[in-house]
Amino acid sequence: MKQITFHPANERGFADHGWLKAAHSFSFAGFYDPKKIHFGALRVLNDDIIAGGMGFGTHPHDNMEIITIMLEGELAHKDSMGHVQSLLPNEVQVMSAGTGIYHSEYNNLPDKRINLLQTWIFPAKRNVTPRYDQKIFEPTERINNLQMLVSPIDTEDDGLKIHQNAWLYRATFDAGLQTTVKLHTSTNGFYIFNLEGDLEIEGHQLGRRDAIGVIGNEELTITSKTKSDFVVFEIPMQLR
Asked: Looking at the 3D structure of the chain, how many domains does it have?
């Protein structure tokens, strides 16, 4: 049976810590909504704006697949696996926290804000050896195309690898373009987060930062009403 969940941007949780302005699509930190705990294996989708020179001090994670998509600015990353690297716009980072890692994240620009999406996905396998990877994705390759950013570690599909049967795409569409995306696994669902522009999906109009979850459709038609930039998740709906 098809189920549709519409998440308007203005119904997200919002936190203003001065140096950090965060919008939470799902319950996180001080934001709790019993109807928005997770969407299948998708546990966190945070839209973070970090002030110049500020950031998150060293903190732990375990048994989570963490994906960071840089939208604006430069993020300095340091972790207990020995990685000291920066993330730039159009770059994606994945961390399989597994048995446990520590890391810190800071805005590398002292006088400019940065904007990033951070996503947490429950893993299919717990207590794996922690791993890290990052990659710049050429923006021209997502013009009017679903550019694969993330895919399961046991496939030969494009993108960075995670320990979950999930795929993540980003696309920048011209006005009037329509595409159909198909599930790899029939028990998965779709979650679309619209970064910019206007989309139409399953009769719903999505503006900037609106999102929609669709379960029970093995394929989904996405229509770009204006020039748009959006992210598509294919996510397992059953947690192990």
From this structure: 1
Please identify which residue in the block is written with the tokens 């204006």.
226
Average pLDDT over residues 61-65: 96
172-225 per-position pLDDT tens digit: 999 999 999 999 999 999 999 999 999 999 999 999 999 999 999 999 999 999
Residue 233 phi, psi (nearest 5):
-105, 135
Do the Cβ atoms of 104 and 87 come closer than 8 Å?
A: no
Tell me the pairing of strands 147-152 and 160-162.
parallel
Q: What are phi and psi of 235, to 5 degrees?
A: -130, 135
> How crowded is residue 87: how many other Cβ atoms within 10 Å of its Cβ?
22
Question: CATH code at 180?
Answer: 2.60.120.10
Residues paired with 44 in a beta bridge: 120
Look at the pTM and tell me if it is higher than 0.70: yes
The answer to whether residue 52 scores a pLDDT higher than 80 is yes
Contact status, residue 235 vs residue 120, Cβ threshold 8 Å: no
Going by C-alpha positions, the residue among 223, 188, 183 that lies closest to residue 202 is 223
Q: How far apart are the C-alpha atoms of 122 and 233, rounded to whole Å?
A: 13
Inter-CA distances, 171 with 128, 185, 193, 197, 231, Å: 31, 21, 11, 12, 7
Q: Which domain holds residue 87?
A: 3-236
CA dist 96 → 183, 189, 213, 236 (Å): 23, 22, 24, 17
